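[Q] Does anyone have a clean structure-token version of this?
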Amino acid sequence: MAAGENFPFARRDFLTRCGMGFGFSALGSMLTKESYGVTTNPMAPRGPHFAPTAKRVIHLFMNGGPSHVDTFDPKPELTRWSGKPLPDGSRLSTERKTGAAFGSPFRFRRHGASGLSVSELFPHVAKHVDELCVIRSMYADVPNHEPSLMLMNCGDGRLVRPSMGSWVTYGLGSENQNLPGFVVLCPGGYPITETQNWRSAFLPGIYQGTYVDPSKGGPADVIPNLRPARPDGRQARQLDLLRSLNRRHADARGTDARLEARIQSFELAYRMQMEASDAFDVSRESPHVRKSYGSGVHAKQCLIARRLVERGVRYVQLWHGAAQPWDNHDDIEKNHRKLAKECDQAIGALLTDLKRTGLLEETLVIWGGEFGRTPTVELSKPGANAGKVNGRDHNHYGFSMWLAGGGVKGGHVHGATDEFGFKAVENPMHVHD
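[A] Here you go.
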């Protein structure tokens, strides 16, 4: 068509009127009954493209960055060099100034038939080493909390991307339509970067994580307004009216993903009133089971996690606590011992419980933080570590995570850091992997 020739439609109008014809040429091969159902129920369970082993995930997030050389990556050479400058070429640049080699104050011992070494900090987890695959060669991009949290949870430290839990529920749906498909437990408040850690980004809002503070009291306190203040019939009629008004609004204005997400959230909230009350009520467990998990909020949230996955929740993420508790720039021996004691028994009991019930075979359990810590001691800095020289700085060059269940190879160590634990050198595994 010659430039300037009259045309009845602007480009936008043309695409609006005719674009559907282009799309339908490819739609026929893509549209199955299963995928078609997503338009009416986005959380309906969907089968993957292959036969899976793992059907659900429990992600134990140790926010702040636990030290790998004090937990799951023993470094006897670091102990021998403790108090001395590392040899030339062994030191890497860090966020803050660090000094001499800092040998671990914790003893490591081999456990299980595999002989896998674990620090004294995790005696209960150590009983399960033959179910663990310990990755000792993780690495990230930067030594800062915010971008590293985004990278670990959402796959990018800067750009807006959906969280891992959102992708999992988007791809597989949820097995229980009366509970959220993606639940986030963090006692005492949010971690840094807050709700961005479990956002759905450009995916529909129904796939974002549902935040719960397990440090609150009973189920009615954990999830505010869970129980209706009015009789069920009256509340149901109110929700029906609200749904009708929302639908009328949507019909008048076309598709609006935010409005659809709001409608679905109201519907889910109503359905949750009975199921969630049961799932979050750990008092329904036997005294023997509750005792095995220990006391405190970490015992409670690990027990809740098991109750959620056995009810079909697809992805459960457990944070150690608000802010960044594992960020021990000073007093690492005291603080790491305290933090590990808070969660070790509960994690061990969770693994025991999952194995006992057969859920471990289909549930992938992930443990780790956003990065590790330096094998060198952090030097004193005004206002940062109170003049103390007994902690470790951030280390993104090499750190450890472990996996259990879901078909992973147990009693296995993948990769390695160098002899001091500074950098991943054998089979390095980036967060994206």
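[Q] Thanks! Anything notable?
[A] Residues 332-357 form the longest helix (26 residues).
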